[in-house]
Amino acid sequence: MADAVTTQTLVDGQKEAAFKFTNISDGTGESAVVKVDVSTLSKEHVTQKACTKFTIDQLWWQCVGMKVQLLFDATTNVFVIELGETSSGHHDYRDFGGVPNNAGSGVTGDVLFTTVGHAANDTYTILVSGKKSYG
């Protein structure tokens, strides 16, 4: 069996995107699972350039029983933040332009999730909003 996960795209606009992610764990957990796949986001309207990176502007979360790490995908994934076990909150990074994807070598532009300390019936709900960049 596997964790019961959902991904919902709330906004996929010209400049911004927002997503809702949920997980009800069976104890399996997730390890570096692609959650924001920039290759699936809409292209820039005029030039038709593909989205190549996603800057995190805001996070809302509720984790029950487990932690969730957000990572930028690259040859060596870059740690963004760990959302605490049995916690909830809101982080707003817009005052300084958001958390840019500076993953370096092999960067894909994608955002990954890894669960930590997961057990059966642990859950998370995470909302992420941010800005799209085009190649």
Strand content: over 45%
Computed CA radius of gyration, to the nearest angstrom: 15 Å
Largest sheet: 5 strands, antiparallel
Q: Roughly what percent helix?
A: under 10%
Order of helices and strands: EEEEEEEEE
- Give the rounded overall mean pLDDT: 97
What count of helical segments does DSSP give?
0
What descriptive keywords fit this protein?
135 residues, mainly beta, 4-stranded antiparallel sheet
Overall description:
The protein has 135 residues and is mostly beta strands. The chain has no helices and 9 strands. The protein has strands at 4-12, 16-26, 33-36, 51-64, 67-72, 78-83, 87-92, 111-116, 120-134. The strands form 2 sheets. A 5-stranded antiparallel sheet has the order 1-2-9-4-7, with no helix packed on it. It has a 4-stranded antiparallel sheet with strand order 3-8-5-6, with no helix packed on it. It is globular, with a radius of gyration of 15 Å. The N and C termini lie far apart (38 Å). The mean pLDDT is 97.
Question: What layout of secondary structure does this protein have?
Answer:
Blueprint: E1 4-12, E2 16-26, E3 33-36, E4 51-64, E5 67-72, E6 78-83, E7 87-92, E8 111-116, E9 120-134
Antiparallel strand pairs: 1-2, 2-9, 3-8, 4-7, 4-9, 5-6, 5-8
Quick rundown:
This protein has no helices and nine strands.
